[in-house]
Each structure stands twice: as C-alpha cells, then as structure tokens.
Amino acid sequence: MTLKSIHASDGKDLPPLNDHCAEIISASEDVLSWKWDSRFETHLAEFSVEKKDDVYAILKPYFSSTWDRNSIKKAPDAVKQVNDYLGDLRPDQMLLTSKPDQDDFTFCAWWPWGDGKTISLRIAPFYKKNSSTEKGTKTKRFRGLFGLWSFFTG
Question: How far apart are CA 36 and CA 128, in angstroms?
C-alpha cells in the first residue's frame, strides 16, 4: 500500500496543507527518498543533478510561484519570512511556494550543493496566523505524516 491510497487527514484531523505535502511526496516517490529534517522541520530529499529536470517537472504543478535570490526581494512578506527562516537564498537556489497570498501555504526549498552533483529539497507547510503553540502542534502532525508515509511505503 502506498500513500496514493490514503489522505494524510483521514481520521487524523490534519490541516489540508499536510494533504498537499503528502501529494507531492507521493508524486515523487519513484524518484526521491524522503526523510525528516529536524533542523528546519521539513521533509528532506537529496538527489543527483541528473534528475533535476524530472524532479522539477514533478514539483511544478504543486507550486504557483518560484523565487530566486533576486526575485525574493519582491516576494510577499510571508515568503520573505520563510526565506529568512531557511537562511536566505544563495545563487542557484530557489524557493517554490503554493499560494502565498493565502493564510497557509506550502513551500519547497531547492538547494543545489556546492559540489555540483547533488540537490536538496525541503518541503513543509507555512502557517501565517497561528500562535507558536498552534504551529508546534501542526508541525508535530506534519512530522507524523512522514511516519505514515514511511509505514505505508516501507
């Protein structure tokens, strides 16, 4: 059984963004292996640059905006907050976002490594209007999604 046959929110009272992230992870499961990144509280995948076009083609339908080091300056404040949280975009890095004009949205950090051989992705929801406690609860639920995904694909 794979994640394609379930929704993250089935019986779990998870926010819809977790379903959005689950769809992305599921759509990429033949190309990427995901793990939890506790540093940024995101799902993390690393892949060779040879797969970059395939991976980008998988991601693009889920994200309405792509930001780079220059365009991030004109991004909405919430996108700039994500960028600050992740440590600012460097050359060749991108930040993809779903609909940043909504209260909650999904982001994906696209980070090529300095070795020119590897790219990292970090995907997570961003909640604009929640208190720290609410964000913490949602992050725990989001992390639990990774546990569900590992269980169903393992």
Answer: 22
Which residues, at least 6 apart from 71, have a Cβ–Cβ distance to it below 8 Å? none
pLDDT digit string (tens) for 96-129?
999 888 778 889 999 999 999 999 999 988 877 6
At 57-72, the pLDDT tens digits run 999 999 999 999 999 9
d(CA 65, CA 79): 10
Query: β-strands 42-48, 34-37: how paired?
Result: antiparallel
Alpha carbons 63 and 105: distance in angstroms, whole number: 10
Half-sphere exposure of 35 (CA within 13 A, CB side): 6
